[in-house]
Design goal:
This is PucR family transcriptional regulator. Pfam families: HTH_30. By secondary structure, the protein is of the alpha+beta class. It has 4 domains: about 120 residues, HprK N-terminal domain-like (Udp-n-acetylmuramoylalanyl-d-glutamate--2,6- Diaminopimelate Ligase, Chain: A, domain 1, 3-Layer(aba) Sandwich); about 130 residues, Beta-Lactamase; about 140 residues, Alpha-Beta Plaits (2-Layer Sandwich), CATH 3.30.70; about 80 residues, PucR C-terminal helix-turn-helix domain (Arc Repressor Mutant, subunit A, Orthogonal Bundle). It is about 50% helix and about 15% strand. The chain contains 19 helices and 18 strands. The strands form 4 sheets. Strands 13, 14, 15, 16, 17 and 18 form a 6-stranded mixed beta sheet that branches. α13 crosses α14, α14 crosses α19 and α16 crosses α19. The longest helix is centred in the middle third of the chain and has 41 residues. The radius of gyration is 31 Å and the shape is flat. The two termini are about 60 Å apart. About 5% of the residues have low confidence.
Length: about 525
């Protein structure tokens, strides 16, 4: 069972518009029916009816006017045809218009998962149920309760607040357990116990601000989904311990339902994000659906590696990036291949984007290595360009040696992502190096002649020319860079002219030689 309002929220990410709801948005849906144009369709009063085969407004009006269903989903664009609207008012059915580009197969899958999935579990969806469960556990076990995920983020907490310790207050206000508290609990062996045992564990007072706790794992099969914590004065009796175990099992059902719903929302979000990165058509409307502004945005491209489990690390990064409610996350993400793309609101300094990457890295296992590129600031129409810039910054990280700057960092958070605004010169040279590798740049010229001569004779002419160009013709500065006498540098410049023509007095030639030298240092072997 699921409320119409919930169905509208999820389908809204697929381009669906609630055109009318004569009985309100709280009407409950317990079944899914499919319209068959060749037969008389029977739908119950609490079904959502998918209107396959209604190719005209008159056909849609007949279907809506004659149905007993609580809601009807039709292909089309708003506004709703007046004939269909009048029919809905007569029958009381809510009407949802979905973009015709969305296939019926996808709509059927989403509707059945939400409506029938909730029915199979035997109770309604919604985070409120988890808060109610926290209240129930608190009443039976006898202490304030928090229900947390694997990263110690608070999913729900009990209403009871009297006589709570400072850590509980910090945890609820910050929506997660403070890092220093997690460290103390980890040192005490709490998380090791949760990973291997379903038995509740009494945790004594570990710090002055952290009172004693009773904690139990929330598990589905062998997979740890989270934990339930109860603030207690001391060890509790077996009856209250058993009540906590029952509560943890019930919490597992809630979290599994939430995960199924979240997977649908992740896919819908990912589809919208990919559409933003590939096309500018309708971008402002898509950003509005995603709850993002239409200006001051950046695209982040991330790869996560953990040994040989590259794709596993990428999936984990996607899950971490999309965990929580949309309003609590700064960005919106999609996993494309093994690259995680995230669109985030960001200022000219890219501070928010860099903080987002660091935060993601902290959420991943310590052995994971994160490579990240951040595109330039863009409005709705510029997101495909920002995505290209993020890709190229990411490619610089993957190239490893030969490029200055960030070369990846571990889950501990060391290192910095590469931002296009500061790396555009490297990006340009990387593009030219790639073009040179494919034979699209000249392969002969003074730089090529000097490199060949150096390779055959052990001279340092190319390095000398690079230093002279970097110093803008200042012989003393170039000589200092090379750690040679200025006369030695002048002698080398004179001897170069015997190897090839080096037109140092031509500004275009100097620019071309500087670029060719930079590319030669970056080309793959």
């Amino acid at each position: 069972m699921v409320a119409l309002d919930r169905l509208v929220d999820v389908l809204g990410s697929l381009g669906t518009h609630l055109s009318c709801a004569p009985r309100g948005r709280e009407v409950e849906l317990r079944g899914v029916a499919l319209h068959d144009p060749a037969e008389s369709t029977t739908a119950a009063h609490d079904d959502v009816l998918l209107g396959l085969g209604t190719g005209s407004a008159s056909a849609a009006a007949r279907l809506v006017g004659n149905t007993r269903a609580a809601a009807v989903v039709l292909h089309g664009h708003p506004p709703l045809d007046e004939r269909v609207l009048a029919a809905a008012r007569r029958s009381g059915a809510a009407v949802l218009l979905v973009d015709p580009e969305v296939p019926w197969s996808q709509l059927v899958n989403v509707a059945q998962t939400l409506v029938l999935g909730g029915q199979r579990q035997g109770c309604a969806e919604g985070p409120g149920d988890l808060f109610a469960l926290a209240d129930a556990i608190a009443a039976v076990v006898g202490g304030p309760v928090t229900i947390e995920d694997q990263q110690s983020r608070v999913l729900a907490y009990s209403y009871r607040q009297q006589d709570v310790d400072p850590v509980r207050v910090q945890t609820i206000l910050g929506r997660r357990v403070p890092d220093e508290v997690r460290r103390v609990q980890d040192e005490h062996g709490v998380f090791g116990h949760l990973a291997t045992s379903d038995e509740p564990l009494f945790v004594p007072q570990l710090t002055e601000a952290l009172g004693s706790r009773l904690v139990a794992a929330v598990r589905a099969g062998r997979e740890l989904l989270g934990s339930v914590w109860v603030e207690v004065d001391g060890p509790v009796d077996p009856q209250r311990t058993a009540a906590l175990v029952d509560g943890a099992r019930t919490a597992a059902l809630h979290l599994l339902r939430a995960r199924a719903s979240a997977d649908l929302e992740r896919q819908a979000e990912a589809d919208l994000v990919i559409s933003l990165l590939e096309s500018t058509v309708g971008a402002p409307a898509v950003l509005t659906r995603l709850g993002l502004p239409t200006t001051d945005l950046r695209v982040i491209a991330v790869q996560a590696h953990a040994g040989e489990g590259e794709h596993g690390a990428a999936l984990l990064a996607f899950e971490r990036a999309t965990a929580g409610f949309g309003w609590s996350r700064p960005g919106r993400s999609a996993l494309f291949g093994n690259v995680l793309y995230t669109v985030v609101p960001c200022d000219e300094e890219a501070v928010q984007a860099m903080d987002w990457v660091r935060s993601l890295a902290r959420e991943l296992p310590a052995e994971a290595t994160v490579l990240a590129g951040i595109g330039g600031c863009a409005d709705a129409a510029g997101l495909p360009t920002s995505r290209l810039e993020a890709d190229e910054c990411l490619a610089l990280q993957a190239a490893g040696s030969g490029f200055s700057g960030f070369s990846g960092f571990s889950g501990s958070g060391a290192g910095e992502p590469l931002v296009y605004d500061k790396a555009w010169a490297q990006v340009l040279l990387h593009r030219l190096a790639a073009a040179a590798d494919t034979g699209r740049l000249p392969v002969r010229g003074p730089v090529a002649d000097l490199l060949l001569h150096d390779g055959e004779n052990g001279t340092q002419y190319a390095a000398t020319l690079r230093a002279w160009l970097a110093a803008q013709g200042d012989v003393r500065q170039a000589a200092k860079e090379l750690a040679v006498h200025p006369n030695t540098l002048r002698y080398r410049l004179t001897r170069m002219a015997e190897v090839t023509t080096v037109p140092l007095d031509d500004p275009d030639q100097r620019l071309a030689m500087a670029i060719a030298l930079a590319i030669s240092a970056r080309r793959t072997p």
